[in-house]
């Protein structure tokens, strides 16, 4: 698949930059403020991930209308192994909008290392397209 999609470029570089920032934040986060920043980096990564996948799917002639559908279709393409894992991340992402800071830290922060691992795997597959 070409790197260019329709009238623009597949914006994987922004996803890679966001992933790199999240990885650094995970290594450095010690204070509540740093953890909150790391959770914000996760939110950005998650949003960029599903929107990037949606663009790639569209380039393959497949249209997705939601994050859940995007991850289901990405699994069908073999780009991710299990969409349910990404649904968990979606649930964690949604928590960040509806709960106060302490709850967010307790519920979201522990899953971030696994999210980063899955994101790294996905990026490697996208880079090969």
Most strands sheet? 2 strands, antiparallel
Number of domains: 1
What is the C-alpha radius of gyration, as a whole number of Å?
A: 15 Å
The CATH topology label is Four Helix Bundle (Hemerythrin (Met), subunit A)
Decide which structural class fits the backbone. Answer: mainly alpha
Strand % is under 5%
- Element string (H = helix, E = strand): EEHHHHHH
End-to-end separation: 5 Å
Q: Quick one: CATH class?
A: Mainly Alpha
By DSSP, the count of extended strands is 2
Mean pLDDT: 91
Question: Total helix count?
Answer: 6
What does this structure look like?
The chain starts with a strand and ends with a helix. With 129 residues, the chain is mainly alpha-helical. It has a two-stranded antiparallel sheet with strand order 1-2. The relative contact order is 0.16. Helix content is 74%, strand content 3%. The protein has a single domain, classed as Nucleotidyltransferases  domain 2 (Four Helix Bundle (Hemerythrin (Met), subunit A), Up-down Bundle), CATH 1.20.120. The model has no long low-confidence stretch (mean pLDDT 91). The chain has 6 helices and 2 strands, in the order ββαααααα. The chain is globular, with a radius of gyration of 15 Å. Strand 1 and strand 2 (8-9) form a beta hairpin.
